[in-house]
Target: DNA-(apurinic or apyrimidinic site) lyase
Amino acid sequence: MAEGHAVHGMAGRLRQLAGQPVRSSSPNGALDAALFDERVVADAQAVGKHLLVSAVDVPLTVHLHLAMDGAVSVRRHARALAGAYPRTEPPIHGNVAWRLLSATHHAEVTDPAVCELLDEDGVLALRARLGPDPLRDDADPDLARRRIQNSRRPIGALLIDQKVIAGIGNVYRAELLHRARLDPFTPGHDIDDDTFAALWQDAVDLMTLGLGAGWIVTDEAQMAAAREVLVRGERVPRWPKRYAVYGRAGKPCPVCGTTVRAERMGLQRLFWCPGCQHS
Ligand SMILES: [Zn+2]
Model:
């Protein structure tokens, strides 16, 4: 499943259409796309793993959640167009729920789990049921801290609960907890202010780097190399992924050598090192 950095990346690609009128259609009929047809795209933004797309003078917002199988593709036309829209609709490949065509770009949303129109109250309700998103400037980390410290649930479960923090998925959960040397079974109410502050800041740092790189980078050497590439304004290559614990059950922890374990926590498998992740 796409974690928050990937959804923010999709929002950024969709924003390439902002300010332009679009042809809007829903080839599979999942969305009442006519509402956006010949309107000007205003904004596309991510809130955790959710996408919200709005248009000028359209009172409803398109809400997308991609879950396991959904995807957003945004491509620039090979040739500049004479008019505002392509003259012919490109052929349809796959289960396209929403297609947007502008003078410069062709965007498609395929196989989303949620593809719906929300009014203003609906957007507010969605925002209210999500915790703060480490990649958003308007995030209030205190809200996440209170929700964690008021809970007896293990921090490993709380970190991927979208009501607590929006955007963290299974990879970031495992790697954040390992980087903090934090036992994933620590109850939320035992997480002190300093521990939370460090976890939040690391989530902001890692996910910001993940957004810039386009993939999840958590290994210190790769992080330093990726930052150098980004500072030069270049694209970060897809180096082989080097996780400390995620997906590494049965292998030695790179820090202490103890065998990494995996166990189901919530809906997903949690990976951790019992050797160096102590409370
Ligand atoms: Zn270890």
Notes: The pocket of zinc ion is lined by residues 253, 255-256, 258, 273, 275-276 (CB under 6 Å).
